[in-house]
Amino acid sequence: MSQIKTEDELILFEKEIKEFWTKFKSICGSEHVNQTLGLRESCKESIKALSEKWSKKLKEGDLMIDKIQEYRNEILQQNICIEEKQEDLTEMNSKIKHEEEQKRDFINRIQELKEELTRKKEIIAAKNKATKERLERLSKSKELFEERLGLEIRRIYDEQLQFIFRCIDHKDPDKPYTFTLAINEQGDYEVTSSSPPLDCIAELQLKVRETNNFAAFVANIRKAFTALSYK
After folding, report:
1. How many CA within 13 A on the CB side of residue 222?
2. pLDDT by residue (tens digit) across 88-139?
3. Nearest 5 degrees, angle CA 36-CA 39-CA 44?
4. Coil, helix or strand for 13?
């Protein structure tokens, strides 16, 4: 009897142990599930927060990339503009250099013209001086020629002198024999007309240019007119 009671107590104890274990497992399993669900929700929230954070970062990155690309485009346009400005500047410098060269050429040409003008003025002044001296010599000889050779000298157009001889033709002493004298650009004596014409006028003209003996030149022309009057 005592043995049977002990066996019943053991069976009851085992039953209680099983019930306890079942309850324990049930309790532990529920808490674990709850903990797992809590961790899951926590992870989901963390993942969501991280997703939102990285999504924002990605959007900011995209904006940054777009901004960088925009800056690159602006820099590219600026470089193109700078190149165009550089080309314009190079062309402008070339024009300025060309204009400066032209200016130097003009200045040199003006200086050359000034020097040439000065030389021409000096030549003209020298010719005018020589002409004036010759005219003075002619004027001084005028009275002598008029008195001894029956000569009249007149100043006519273009600064020419007309020489009028009379008392040549013994049949008609008042008949005039004339020649016109000028001084050419080279400063030489030049007979521009003769009435009546003389064949020897070119020879006499050349001789007076060589000797510069004007009195002999006038006397020789008178002799030629005299010889012509006897023909």
Report:
1. 19
2. 888 888 888 888 888 888 788 888 888 888 888 888 787 777 767 766 766 6
3. 125
4. helix
Question: Looking at 10-117, which runs of residues are DSSP E strands?
Answer: none
Which residues of the chain, if any, have pLDDT below 70? 1-7, 21, 24-41, 43-44, 47, 50, 54, 131, 134-135, 137-149
Show the tokens assigned to 189.
Answer: 């004596």
Burial class from Cβ neighbours inside 10 Å (0-12, 13-18, 19+) for residue 218 reads: buried
Nearest to 83 by CA among 99, 91, 96: 91
- CA of residue 105 relative to chain centroid, distance: 11
Global pTM? 0.42
- The Cα–Cα gap between 23 and 39 comes to 24
- What gap in Å lies between CA 128 and CA 187, rounded to an integer? 9
Going by C-alpha positions, the residue among 231, 228, 206, 226 that lies closest to residue 149 is 226
